[in-house]
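Case study 2.
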Amino acid sequence: MSDANPRRLLGAFIRTHREHLPTPAKSIGRRRTPGWRREELADAAGVSVTWLTWLEQGREVQASVTTLTRLAQALCLSPAERASLFDLAGRRDTDKKTEVPIDLLPQLSELPGQFNGPAYLIDRVWTARA
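Prediction:
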């Protein structure tokens, strides 16, 4: 993507993930939209459709950490995708479940040596650890 505007990149990220979600079971009839509609995502994340539309369009709206967390859960994002969502929004993820305890780092740093191919270990802020 050639556009380096973080707001537009965030909007494209959300839209792409929304369109790749499986069609909700409660949807009825023929759909012109792949994946979820904005209304369905807004309902699942507990935000307004207007706000979600503005976010996808790259407008000047600010997403709180709580809202981004609900959005990540509604989009079923992996930890790496969740980190990208927060990074694009310019926020820091406060979810402690994604952090690796410091006492596990020595054991984890030995893991890349057990693979036949290249491997690396990164933390939640994408710092290479091993």
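The CA atoms of residues 7 and 51 lie 13 Å apart.
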